[in-house]
Structure prediction request, 258 residues.
Amino acid sequence: MLIETTLLFIAGFFGGALNSIAGGGSFITFPALLMAGVPAISANATNTFASLPGYMAGAWVLRHNMMKARKKLPLTMIIAFIGGIIGAWLLLRTPPARFVEIVPWLLLFATVLFIFGNKINQWIKDRTKHHRHASIVGTLSLSALLLIICIYGGFFNAGFGIMGLSYLALAGMSDIRTMAGLKLVISSCVSSIAVVYFIMENAIAWQPGLAVLAGTVTGGAISAYIARHLPQTIVRNVVTIASIAITSWFFYDVYGRG
Prediction:
């Protein structure tokens, strides 16, 4: 038990550091929970629980950068809460066997977003730079898009941050600090309401979750030091390789074994 708790703490540590530096921490923490014997749906819910403090701490640090978008915050937060609870509800209503079959595809989707997220965001910015709502029709369409993204975030945590940044770019935002702050607010709202629902439904594996959470908080707290001494390119390359390997393993484990 002590060895398992230590390994989960280490997974949380590196996951929290990666989330703060380059993103992609769920590629470590979610599989670690599965390897510890936590059922897939509970592991996903537990991973959301363990990631929440990092989102909230990041949003607090960047709170002053969000003043430019303060008028958008109330509606954005309401939509995030609604999407988060819908996604969490859908997760716990998904049959465990079906969710296990879906996991490799969710990881593949998150991997593609992680690898190509910057290019996707740049592509969206280039096409919305002069026409703020060129790709969609009005605020209602933007709100519907945000709702869909938040439902995904409540259902599955990995890749959610990249989707949030893509939405903000599509909405016409360009200040990266403001976007990062809003992304963390959205993540905090979605995850917090989802965690409340998961707690009510007894879906969180507390002992493994607290071990990962402690590691996540510790890793996130010292990530500033890591960021000063380790190029983000190297970190992203490591996460990319790990995400491809983990996704490939899940495809083999679910579909490759006869």
In short: Residues 80 and 190 are 5 Å apart (CA to CA).
